[in-house]
Amino acid sequence: MIESLFEPVVEREMEAHIMPGLCLSVVKDGEMAYAKAFGVKSLLTGERTTVDSLFHMASLTKPPVATSIIQLVERGMVDLESPVVEYLPYFRLRDPRYETITVGQMVNHTSGMPDVVDYEWDNPVYDDGALERYVRSLAGETLMATPGEEYHYSNMAYEVLGDVISKVSGDTFEGYVEGQILEPLKMKGSTLLKRRANPRLLTAPHVVGNGGVAVSEVFPYNRMHAPSSTLISSVVDMARWALANLNRGQLDSRRILEESSYDLLFEPWRDPRKNGLGSRTTDHGGHDTGNGWGWFHGEHRGRRVVYHGGRDTGFRSYIALLPEESLAVVCSCNFDQAPIVSIANTALDVLLGFEGTIQR
User: Domain locations in the chain?
Assistant: First the structure.
């Protein structure tokens, strides 16, 4: 049994890093083959996690954003090569080059836009107009590079994409993603709106403080930053998300994307000036080779990996898909210093038959 090999590793890592709670799921050969909960939802209550416990997924929100954009492309409502200003006339930056930024450049982090500095987790807003107000507030920002020429990871660009989704679809950003992705895939516990999350299942964020690990005074939620960060989900629901992507857009009888769209989504961005792969410089996982369309791309034990990681105050999350092996691993923890990438990679090693490399 795979669990007999990597569960002791998880338990050892939890003890060594004082992780409050962690959940992990494995997808194999078209089904969720494994799910396990470790530790507690909160150090204050001591209540145990379950596989249905909810975690703030942080940047694991971005692949559903990219999927939403591609859905709108399929419907002829968005063109990846069109400037963002065609969809959001009020979008502007201090740098005049903003007028040339395309939707596709925002999706693959080559827009040249900077990153968010302050998410204002301690001063969240909850109303429907929050995202548009945020986009309108960017008029003083300056680009880091000419659009289309360099990779710069930008949460800010994804906030703008969320507003594009909203204005083109005529729905709120959260309403669109829930109606077009979460509900069709029966991700029943998942939401982008914190107030809709089941409080009995929601885990507490934990940070380093007061000489040890403590519950954070703030929860990382602000509707201004929903497209970059606010997906709340469980490893069971995220296993369904993984299955849909491994099946190239279909789960059970529902299809969220045309199969051919994965020829784009699952390919790294290629720099047209160099006729080669784009590069990435930030740590969103353990497989550094290239950025793509809402996903990162790399290798594990010689196998192609499509993945994304996430970290915000009090939480870490990670998902890795191995399309050719029909494998996926999802890992979430309510402590922002947790080594979840190495834990997920240990699970992948077991699944790929590299048990001898695991240090017990």
Answer: 2-357
Q: Phi and psi dihedrals of 276, rounded to 5?
A: -145, 180
Distance CA 224, CA 126 (A): 8
Report helix angle 155-169 to 62-74, nearest 10. 40
- 2-357 belongs to which homologous superfamily? DD-peptidase/beta-lactamase superfamily (3.40.710.10)
What is the number of other CB atoms lying within 10 angstroms of the CB of residue 297? 23
Q: Which residues are CB-contacts of 201 (< 8 A; sequence separation ≥ 6)?
A: 50, 52, 53, 54, 189, 234
Which residue bears the tokens 């450049």?
105
Mean pLDDT estimate for the chain: 92
pLDDT (tens digit, 9 = 90+) per residue, 311-342?
Answer: 999 999 999 999 999 999 999 999 999 999 99
Overall average pLDDT of the 168-173 stretch: 98
Phi and psi of 298, rounded to 5°?
A: -165, -155
